[in-house]
Design goal:
Blueprint lengths: L2 E10 L4 E9 L5 E6 L11 E4 L4 E4 L1 E6 L12 H10 L2 E6 L10 H10 L6 E4 L15 H6 L4 E3 L8 H13 L3 E4 L4 H4 L4 E2 L2 H6 L3 E2 L3 H19 L10 E3 L5 H12 L4 E5 L1 H5 L2 H6 L15 H13 L4 E2 L28 H10 L6 H16 L14 E11 L18 E11 L2 E4 L1
Parallel strand pairs: 1-4, 1-5, 6-7, 7-8, 9-10, 10-13, 11-12, 13-14, 14-15
Antiparallel strand pairs: 1-2, 2-3, 5-16, 16-17, 17-18
Helix pairs in contact: 4-7, 7-8, 8-11
């Protein structure tokens, strides 16, 4: 029995494809036929036929920055509930950050995730810790990571403050062709901070996080990258690949823009909550705990710079930083709230509502930001719409208007500032690993 998608808008940036057509997938999950144009594919009686009537058939989305909390904090999220949330949001793959309890800083931790994720509806890539226990003192075993298929390292949730350790991390990551993902934060500047430092932190009486804390760390790292390229490479060491996680300030975007123009292998991501919300929204909110995150929600001026970075291509990817927390960790005074929000099930709707509908980016570019580029940055295989290729798909209805509500979430947690918000654009389902999962 085959599955046939008729009358779809086939949209795949990896092939520069955007056209009307149909797709037939065999019972083994492999594409059997692509028909371009209005003609449909002839179906047999036993085939499953889905007429998409012009809706989007895109590569499965990929989130390169997630937290599923297992092992150690399964009361917030598990691999199973996180995967269910990802599939519901249109994601067929995610990359998990290592700041679990214990930290994923060895092949044993990687093996745990691999074993316990077998059979889940989405692919889980494991990001290894940059340093042992993410303490910023001793490098983790990068070579052993590679033997377990790890593609990237990060001390997400913190940043290596010691410049010598960071230099070694860059050099070793390059030698093992590992992407280095930086959570850019000068901890001396951010210690005890709750929200963006400015007018609204003063009004609310909350300790501020100065926006300069992020670009200071990025500038240090880019200086190291530039120096290593000039003085240390000479063909003896591969050029480092450096990625800025959840970029949030105008100064940071400008640093990345300049680094790219200088020829450094630098990429960055932005979250939907940072291009949608500001510190003003936090100040006006009644559920302030759900607006507390790191990096914090910034000013409207910084938000405008993020949107311009998306418009001009400086920002390479959209990632959710999906960070589940239990109710008691958010329904509390803001200075006691845990940092972070969930995002897998709202990312596509926010991207279409805030970027596509407002003409910041095209739908083609949105799919590139949510699917093609994250896979490229991590060095994963391209998804191709060709006979003989494994089907890995997201079905998108750009006209669907829906309201974010607690009952619809597949995630174990409910910590989102977007509850009750009406969004335009939604995943109707995914096809992955030979299975069609409709919402």
């Amino acid at each position: 029995m085959s599955t046939i998608f008729q009358n779809a808008r086939l949209l795949n940036p990896a092939e520069n494809l955007d056209t009307i057509g149909s797709m037939k997938i065999g019972d083994d999950g492999v594409i059997e036929k692509i028909a371009i144009g209005p003609d449909t594919i002839t179906a047999r009686e036993e085939d499953t036929v889905i007429n998409l009537d012009g809706k989007i058939l895109a590569p499965g989305l990929f989130d390169m920055h997630c937290h599923f909390r297992e092992p150690g904090q399964e009361y917030k999220e598990t691999l199973e509930s996180g995967a269910a949330a990802a599939a519901a949001g249109g994601f067929t793959g995610v990359a998990l950050m290592p700041n679990t309890k214990p930290v994923i800083d060895s092949p044993l931790g990687v093996a745990y995730i691999r074993h316990h994720s077998a059979g889940l509806p989405v692919d889980l890539e494991v990001i290894g810790a940059m340093t042992v226990e993410s303490r910023g003192e001793t490098l983790a075993p990068y070579g052993k990571y590679c033997s377990y298929g790890v593609k990237a390292v990060s001390d997400d949730g913190t940043a290596v403050q010691n410049t010598q350790i960071m230099r070694l991390a860059i050099e070793y990551a390059a030698n093992f062709d590992l992407l280095l993902i930086q959570h850019a934060e000068d901890k001396d500047l951010t210690a005890g901070g709750i929200m963006n430092e400015g007018t609204y932190s003063a009004i609310l009486g909350l300790k501020g996080i100065p926006e300069v804390a992020e670009p200071i760390m990025i500038a240090r790292d880019l200086q190291l990258l530039s120096w290593l390229k000039k003085h240390k490479l000479n063909g003896a060491m591969p050029e480092p690949r450096y990625h800025v996680a959840h970029i949030s300030t105008a100064a940071s975007v400008e640093l990345v823009r300049h680094a790219k123009a200088s020829g450094l292998k630098v990429t960055c991501e932005v979250t939907p909550h940072h291009f949608t919300l500001s510190d003003e929204d936090l100040a006006n909110a009644t559920d302030k705990g759900n607006y507390i995150m790191k990096p914090p929600l910034v000013s409207r001026e910084n938000q405008a710079a993020l949107i311009e970075g998306l418009r001009d291509g400086t920002i390479d990817a959209i990632a959710t930083d999906h960070a589940p927390h239990a109710k008691h960790e958010k329904e509390c005074p803001p200075d006691q709230a845990s940092f972070g929000i969930i995002g897998l099930e709202t990312a596509l709707g926010l991207t279409i509502s805030e970027l596509v509908e407002k003409k910041v980016v095209s739908l083609f570019r949105a799919v590139e930001l949510l699917s093609t580029n994250p896979r490229r940055i991590l060095g994963l295989e391209k998804i191709l719409f060709k006979a003989g290729e494994k089907a890995n798909l997201c079905i998108i209805d750009t006209e669907c208007s829906w309201t974010v509500n607690e009952e619809s979430f597949r995630s174990k947690s409910r910590n989102t500032p977007f509850m009750g918000r009406t969004l335009k654009g939604k995943s109707m389902g995914v096809f992955h690993n030979g299975k069609l999962m409709m919402n």
